[in-house]
Design brief:
The complex is a heterodimer of chains A (418) and B (286).
Chain A (H helix, E strand, L loop, with lengths): L1 H40 L6 E7 L9 H17 L8 E7 L4 H13 L5 E5 L2 H14 L2 E4 L15 E3 L4 H14 L5 E7 L4 H14 L3 E8 L7 H8 L5 E5 L2 H13 L5 E5 L5 H7 L1 H4 L3 E5 L6 H9 L8 H19 L5 H12 L4 E3 L2 H9 L4 E3 L19 E7 L2 E8 L2
Parallel strand pairs in A: 1-2, 1-3, 3-4, 4-5, 6-7, 6-8, 8-9, 9-10, 11-12
Antiparallel strand pairs in A: 10-13, 13-14
Chain B lengths: L1 H31 L6 H18 L4 H24 L7 H23 L14 E3 L2 E3 L1 H23 L1 H11 L1 H6 L4 H26 L11 H11 L4 H18 L8 H15 L10
Antiparallel strand pairs in B: 1-2
Helix pairs in contact in B: 1-5, 1-8, 1-9, 1-10, 2-3, 2-4, 2-8, 3-8, 5-6, 5-8, 6-8, 9-10, 9-11, 10-11
The chains are: A alpha/beta (418), B mainly alpha (286).
């Protein structure tokens, strides 16, 4: 029964697809006739199509709109300055809905209908992993802000890059901060069972051990248990002075409350995507007091960040919109360096030439394009960080913000550079 | 040694939270002859009813708890009238499946009203008492105490009141009870009201101990099921004992196996009991 209904829907889809294609063909033909005289005259003025796939709704809905705004702001500036080698950028916006299924449909439309050469700024790792094979196959360059290791793993021909640090870099930075605070000598690792827990933990604990800090316990716990009392009893029996709590907000609330009840006197550290305003609301200000959080942060002092902040005012200073700003700037610079052909392949071939040292440091598309026209080498330093990529598409370095809960509010304490 | 005692206490508290829904599940199973999996959703209903009173009306958690008993009892009674009553003559399997459907319906209703976010009661978190190196949470002690008291009350009701005796008679032989002129439908009504209230009260305890979200109760249902089977279907003290044993085994298991396998303990207990002593500890036949 379900099968038949499914088939019926497929049939209907195929039919509407057919009519849509016919319509498109007709429209294209009409356009050809009307626009024919223009073709010869302005071939090089043809717009460059770029797609955005930000999470405008769904779990990433708090971040997507600003990400898209950042991309639009950069493109407006590029187009006002005469485009890339005379060609304007034309943006096509789609909503990923923070859903892999919706994002794949939107990406298909961007590739097949709009013929974009690059898409940018998906947020959730599950979304990015779903769209990745389509982009690689279509030879479309793909930028994301997703953190899972799998995003850049495997052979993707160089079409994938991201500005969010992978778990390796994150684990090292967390550990580096712990080492910088000399008072923490005995660290316990407690993590929710996720794909993130093991690789992050290995890097975090490995770096700590080589820094002379002892790991008292390493415990992965299950989601949705009525209590974590025995897990916590086991961890507390090892007398840690810092507990690294790598979970999501709901389970972190339960554990933090229990640690408070048990009069745990040491410190707690967690990722800022879990130690957030909702966490404080759930655990209460008294329980949350003093808990540390770390997250990739934008380069607040960088010239590119100041330009970004002027164009896209942000209330919460989250790290994602600045990354989108850098995505589109880097795509523009890579195309400007490419000369001639504008394609996903041109972007991936020139990305590292404009993003990595050596070269004169530039902090905007305009400055970079000017130097490129003079035949000079450039090195873009962005709003989100220095934007230097390794061969696999991961960033080499990135500033991280350190935060602490103080009187029920999250306050930024310092910035750590890997 | 203190450590082992701590695990034991932790297990008793976990068991205390399992006990009330296990008693409701067990008694209702014996009476209506099907496992009512909607008991998990009743926990959620109770937790959110108390949340509405605690946050919405700004009343203390004691009031919220009493309101949760009333609301959840009423919901359970209404579910019985609307869904299970027309299905009384159907096979237990059909009713069990229907109860899973009810679970989905109730959970999604809660989700529709309150959303998917997790919440907490407006109750200050207190420091645990320390006694001989043993850390004893105040809320946990209270949860354990109230639970034991309620189970004693249920047992007294079933043993010594006319209605309780009538309930046991109906459970033993519904046809004979009806022939003898017992108002069996009214008895079932009282039992579902009471069972729902017990589960709702436990939902508040669970929310107090952890956080509140729409899937609060359904995460617990395997452990509740295990406790009821271990205790012996139909026996309130058996369900309490079963719940405490399941709780203690789940918590002490973390001494020997990784905590990620904690959920497997409930399944292992169900398997072992069904193989070795299918009638459970208290002896009633399922």
């Amino acid at each position: 029964m379900g099968d038949e209904v499914g088939r019926l829907f497929q049939l209907e889809d195929a039919m509407s697809e057919l009519t849509r294609r016919n319509l498109l063909k007709t429209a294209a033909a009409a356009g050809l006739i009307v626009g024919a005289p223009a073709v010869g005259r302005a071939q090089s003025k043809e717009p460059i199509a770029i797609g955005t796939l930000c999470p405008l709704t769904g779990a990433g809905g708090a971040y997507g709109p600003d990400m898209q705004k950042a991309i639009v702001a950069v493109v407006e500036r590029i187009n006002k300055g005469g485009g890339i080698q005379g060609r304007p950028i034309q943006l096509f916006h789609e909503d990923s809905q923070t859903s892999p299924e919706a994002a794949v449909r939107a990406a298909r439309k961007l590739f097949d209908v709009n013929r974009v050469i690059a898409i940018m700024s998906t947020w959730a790792s599950a979304v990015t992993l779903a769209v990745k094979p389509l982009a690689v196959e279509a030879k479309v360059f793909y930028f994301s802000v997703s953190g899972a290791d799998a995003v850049t793993e495997g052979n993707h021909g160089g079409y994938i890059a991201r500005t969010q640090p992978n778990t390796k870099l994150q684990g090292q930075v967390y550990a580096k901060w712990v080492l910088s605070r000399k008072e923490y000598k005995r660290v316990a690792y407690m993590a929710l069972q996720t794909p993130f827990a093991l690789p992050f933990g290995d890097n975090f604990m490995g770096t700590l051990k080589s820094g002379g800090v002892s790991i008292t316990d390493n415990l992965i716990y299950e989601d949705k248990k009525p209590s974590y009392r025995s897990e916590i009893t086991r961890v507390l029996a090892t007398n840690p002075d810092l507990i690294m709590l790598e979970g999501y907000a709901p389970d972190s609330v339960v554990i933090a409350k229990e640690l408070y009840r048990l009069s745990y006197k040491g410190a707690i550290l967690g990722p800022a995507f879990s130690i957030n305003a909702k966490f404080i609301e759930g655990a209460g200000a008294e329980v949350a007091e003093g808990i540390w959080a770390i997250d990739p942060a934008p380069s607040f002092d960088a010239p590119a960040y100041k330009q970004f902040a002027a164009a896209v005012p942000q209330a919460d200073k989250n790290p994602y919109a600045p990354q989108s700003w850098d995505h589109v700037t880097l795509v523009g610079l890579a195309l400007a360096a490419g000369r001639g052909e504008a394609s996903g392949t041109a972007i991936k071939d020139n990305l590292r030439a404009v993003s990595n040292p050596p070269g004169t440091v530039v902090t905007s598309y305009e400055d970079g394009a000017k130097l490129l026209r003079e035949g000079k080498k450039i090195n873009y330093e962005g709003a989100s960080g220095s934007c230097d990529f390794d061969a696999q598409g991961d960033i080499l370095s990135r500033p991280f913000g350190v935060y602490q809960v103080r009187k029920g509010k999250i306050e930024q304490v310092s910035i750590v550079n890997p | 040694m203190t450590n082992a005692a701590q695990y034991l206490f932790n297990g008793l508290v976990t068991g205390g939270i399992l006990a009330l829904p296990a008693v409701a599940f067990s008694v209702l199973w014996k009476l209506l002859r099907f496992p009512n999996f909607a008991v998990g959703a009743y926990l959620t209903i109770g937790a959110f009813a108390a949340l509405a009173v605690n946050h919405g009306l700004g009343r203390g958690i004691e009031w919220a708890w009493l309101c949760a008993l009333a609301v959840t009892g009423t919901v359970a009674w209404a579910v019985d009238r609307v869904v299970f009553h027309p299905m009384r003559d159907r096979r237990p399997f059909a009713l069990a499946i229907a109860s899973i459907g009810v679970t989905f319906f109730l959970e999604n209703t809660v989700r529709f009203i309150w959303g998917n976010d997790y919440r907490s009661y407006d109750v200050p978190v207190t420091r645990a008492l320390v006694w001989q190196g043993l850390r004893i949470g105040r809320e946990q002690l209270m949860i354990l105490g109230v639970t034991v008291l309620l189970v004693v009350l249920v047992q007294a009701f079933l043993g010594w009141t006319r209605l309780g005796v009538a309930m046991r008679a109906t459970a033993n032989n519904p046809l004979l009870a009806r022939v003898k002129g017992l108002p069996t439908e009214r008895i079932v009504g009282v039992a579902t009201l009471g069972g729902g209230a017990l589960a709702g009260g436990a939902g508040v305890f669970l929310g107090l101990d952890t956080t509140i979200d729409p899937l609060l109760g359904s995460g617990l249902i395997i452990a509740v099921f295990a406790a009821a089977i271990l205790g012996g279907i139909g026996s309130a003290p058996g369900a309490l004992l079963g719940a405490l044993i399941v709780g203690v085994m789940e918590e002490t298991s973390t001494l020997v196996i990784p905590p990620t396998y904690k959920s497997a303990v409930g399944f292992a207990i169900i398997l072992a009991v069904l193989l070795v002593r299918p009638q459970g500890l208290a002896g009633g036949r399922p």
